[in-house]
Amino acid sequence: MKKNILIVTAHPSSLGFTHKIADAYKTSSEEAGHTVEILDLYKTDLKQDFLRYEMREDMGKPDATRDAMQAKITWANEIVFVHPMWWVGMPAIMKNWIDVNMAARFAFRYINGNPVGLLKGKSARVFITCDGAMWKYWLILKPFWTIWFFGILNLCGLKVRGITTLSKKFKRTDG
């Protein structure tokens, strides 16, 4: 089955491992007949300010950039996130992209106090790069995988296809 794949990257250098992973995923997916778009958060014309509002209702005000980003999410059957591990988390630009675009009433909503994912039928993968030795990341990666799996992807209804960590020495761990 042909898929539309959105690859979201967050690394300021186009020479880094993050972009090599995204390019390799794009190439292999296109060879398999899929349509792929790479959204480089540092280079897109669709720049977004950090999420800010006074009243919750302000979050629903029209925003052309958010609408364009959410159209990309709607278009995709699969969303692939590729980013480095910085300060035991994702880069701020990636976190902000999630905060702004994977918003309530678009990606999830609360029904009787419980979150219900609205992106069901879509899947997601996460590739996290680390410069250091993997053993140094062991204690911090499990909580980080939990945040990605339960706090973001599963909450939005996305089927998690994998959360993979790759070190500079090309060792790999899957969560």
Shape by Cα distribution: globular
Strand content: 25-35%
What is the share of helical residues?
25-40%
Annotated CATH homologous superfamily: Flavodoxin domain
Radius of gyration: 16 Å
- The number of distinct structural domains comes to 1
**Tally of DSSP β-strands:** 8
Order of helices and strands: EHEHEHEEEHEE
Biggest pleated sheet: 6 strands, mixed
Strand order of the largest sheet: 2-1-3-6-7-8
Question: Would you mind describing this structure in some detail?
Answer:
The protein has four helices and eight strands. Helix content is 33%, strand content 27%. It is of the alpha/beta class. It starts with a strand and ends with a strand. The strands form two sheets. It has a six-stranded mixed beta sheet, with helices on both faces. The protein has helices at 17-31, 64-75, 92-101, 134-154; strands spanning 4-9, 35-40, 78-84, 108-111, 114-117, 123-130, 159-167, 172-174. It has one domain: Flavodoxin domain (Rossmann fold, 3-Layer(aba) Sandwich).
